[in-house]
Each structure stands twice: as C-alpha cells, then as structure tokens.
Amino acid sequence: MKIEDFNAMSASEASATVRPCVDIDSWVEAVVAGRPYADLDALLATADSAAGGWTEAEVDSALADHPRIGERPSGSGVSDGLAAREQAGVDPADTEVQARLADGNRRYEAAFGRIYLVRAAGRSAQEMLDLLEQRLDNDPETELEVTRGQLAQIAHLRLAGMFR
C-alpha cells in the first residue's frame, strides 16, 4: 500500500486497515488522526508515539485474540495471517521445544493472568522459549511494561510491513 492511498481513505477504512497491527482503540485513533503523512517515517513516528501509555485493560484487550506463542492461529483474518508469518520460527517438528513452550505458556498465564507475548518475527522457537523462561521471574508490573514494549514492537513491524 502507498502512504497516499492510506491518506485518502475514509477514517473508518483507515481504522480497519491499521487495526490488525494492534487492536487498541487509542492507538488506531491516533494513527488515523495523524493523517496525512508525508512518508512512512512520519507514519511510524506517530504510531510509535501513540504506543507508549497503554493501560493494562488495553493490553489485555489487545491480547484477547492473539495466539499463544507456539500455537498456530486458527482463524483466517488479517491478524491471524500476520501472527502465523511472525511465528514462522516455531517448527512444529521440534516437539521438545513445542512441549516446553506449551508448559511455559501455562505457567506464564498462571503467574500473570494473560498470554505470553513476544515479538516473534525473526526469532527462533528456542529464542522465544528462552525469553519466556526469563520473563517468568519478572514481577507483574515489570512484566506488564515488557508486554507493552512487545506490543509496540509488533505494531511497528506490522505497520511498516503494510507500506513496504
């Protein structure tokens, strides 16, 4: 997609276009309200700025439809397709790592009350597992901050990918 096309969309079309990047109303609204953008860098700067202060409720809402790390998305929507590509480093044939990810996901959810989220793009399953095991030692507030940062990275990468 071209920036010019995004700039020319109605607000509802533009919202629907960027929402799969991260389903947080305040972020979507800020990105759409920032139009027109001169270029991708300007768009990403607005998106990154809007990603800063998400509430815990916004984070939890954004994670509601996110697949667990190591699990393949079951839907056919845009967000599911993005998640599937991002988790390409998780080889279903590596049953030991798959089992450890599944166990880690359960422990993480028990500890923090939400799914484990990590920017999966460009990471191997082992890297994602190592990060999961490290993050299990975080206190809830630290982990919320880490999760916010991961969501922001994912939103940035997904948005950049739409315009390249």
- Overall pLDDT metric: 89
- Assigned CATH architecture: Orthogonal Bundle
Oligomer state equals: single chain
CATH superfamily: Oxo-4-hydroxy-4-carboxy-5-ureidoimidazoline decarboxylase
Q: Tell me how many strands there are.
A: 0
Residues in β-strands, percent: under 5%
Class by alpha and beta content: mainly alpha
Radius of gyration over all CA atoms, rounded: 16 Å
Description:
The protein is mainly alpha-helical and 164 residues long. It has one domain (3-162): UraD-like. Helices cover 63% and strands 0% of the residues. The protein has nine helices and no strands. The protein has helices at residues 3-8, 11-18, 25-33, 40-50, 56-63, 78-86, 95-112, 125-135, 140-162. The radius of gyration is 16 Å and the shape is elongated. The termini are close together. 24% of the residues are buried. The mean pLDDT is 89.
Which features does this protein show?
single chain, 164 residues, mainly alpha, UraD-like, 63% helix, 0% strand, elongated
